[in-house]
Design goal:
Helix content: 25-40%
Order of helices and strands: EHEEHEHHHEEEHEEEEEHEEHHEHEEH
Number of helices: 11
Number of domains: 3
Structural class: alpha+beta
Shape: globular
CATH superfamily of the largest domain: ATP-grasp fold, B domain
Radius of gyration: 21 Å
Length: 393
């Protein structure tokens, strides 16, 4: 296994945690902070950003403002990330001056560019779809050997389907690439998967790795709509995914929570699609369905505490994202009230002040209690259908 060298870290509980980013992921960290006795210091551009409500102090600045991060570092013992929209070169100078980042910047530098990420995954022996880098120099005639359809991805800053395109033919590839003025972009072989899977894993300062129940995600237009937990897969596949998670986190020698998205092909082959070096939408169910949520786990990891139990506290669960379906200013209280009447329901509303199509405004988790595990998947789908009928009606 290829690993990155890292200095030995002695376990030490850190109580002042800085978070770069103030959206819903940081907000959910904030929900869990008080129970661990830690304080959050948030760098985010707007006073209305969700995490401001839980922050001990907010530094109002853009996410990639390294001067603001230098100020954040003076307030905190350790700095972590809500998203990947950061300037690693500038942050590296702060690290040289003593700022502590978890996960470490050397590991993030291998993952933030999607082409670099797949190259690293391939290097450490993890299964990935065939891919190549599309550049003006090596693809002047836009010729490649991945076939059509093919997936075109922005190398940086794409999320929730933004910067990802399913391309049907060479003409469409040329036209789409031209819209971005021909930057280097990732070309990835289109995988006609049977289902999409995901797993959350965490690694501590002592090198302990824990893995959450594997889930099935349901995407529409490259945006996650629902998550079913646990995924209806066999023990062999579960063990393979756990091994992938442990190989990745140990190879990177990281501290914190990571999200791993995978394809399961009709032939039963697993392929790693993308890595999120942070808490992830596929793990939101853990707030209400697990002994230790992914957000509390992340805080435990970066603060130096032992990792918590990842077990479910129920037979299964389904998480449904409440996505914006119109451009409006509304809290959709009537729709949320109707959803809340479903038994064993937990609604997390992020408090965002504006809705727009596809924006994540909140999520709903419904716990499933049954003695027959074979019923979980169908019950989860029935519940998710009901929630979406209420929300999008």
């Amino acid at each position: 296994m290829n690993t990155l060298s890292t200095p030995t870290i002695q376990p030490q509980t850190l109580t002042k945690i800085g978070v770069i980013g103030g959206g819903q992921l940081a907000w959910m960290m904030g929900m869990e902070a008080a129970s661990l006795g830690v304080s959050l210091f948030v760098q985010t551009p707007h006073t209305t950003d969700p995490a401001v409500a839980f922050a001990s102090e907010t530094i109002l600045a853009a996410i990639d403002d390294a001067t603001a991060t230098a100020k954040l570092a003076t307030r905190c013992d350790v700095i972590t990330f809500e998203n990947e929209f950061v300037d690693l070169n500038a942050l590296s100078k702060l690290a040289e001056q003593g700022a502590c980042f978890r996960p470490r910047l050397q590991a993030l530098s291998l993952l933030l560019d999607k082409y670099d990420q797949l190259s690293y995954l391939e290097k450490i022996g993890l299964p990935v779809p065939a891919f190549q880098l599309l550049t003006a120099e090596n693809n002047q005639t836009i010729d490649h050997n991945l076939g059509y359809p093919v997936v075109l991805k922005a190398c940086r800053y794409g999320y929730d389907g933004q910067g990802t395109f399913i391309i049907k033919n060479p003409e469409e590839l040329s036209q789409t690439w031209a819209k971005f003025n021909y930057p280097p972009m990732l070309l990835q072989k289109f995988v006609p998967f049977e289902r999409e899977l995901a797993v959350i894993a965490a690694r501590s300062v002592t090198g302990e790795v824990v893995v959450y129940p594997i889930v099935e995600t349901v995407q529409k237009n490259q945006v996650c709509h629902r998550v079913i937990v646990p995924a209806n897969i066999n023990k062999t596949l579960s063990e393979q995914i756990e091994a992938i998670a442990k190989t990745l986190l140990n190879s990177l020698q990281v501290i914190g929570v990571f999200g791993i998205e995978l394809f399961l092909t009709s032939e039963g082959e697993l392929l790693v699609n993308e890595i999120a070096p942070r808490t992830h939408n596929s793990g939101h169910f853990s707030l209400d369905a697990c002994e230790t949520s992914q957000f509390k786990q992340h805080l435990r990891a970066v603060s130096g505490l032992p990792l918590g139990n990842t077990a479910l506290n129920c037979s299964g669960a389904v998480m449904v994202n409440l996505l914006g379906f119109e451009t409006a200013n509304s809290d959709y209280s009537q729709k949320r009230q109707k959803i809340a009447e479903i038994p064993n329901t937990f609604i997390r509303w992020y408090g965002k002040t504006a809705s727009r199509p596809g924006r994540k405004l909140g999520h709903v988790t419904v716990l499933i209690h049954t003695e027959n595990d074979q019923n979980i998947e169908q019950e989860a789908k029935t519940i998710a259908d009901k929630i979406e009928s209420f929300w999008y009606s």
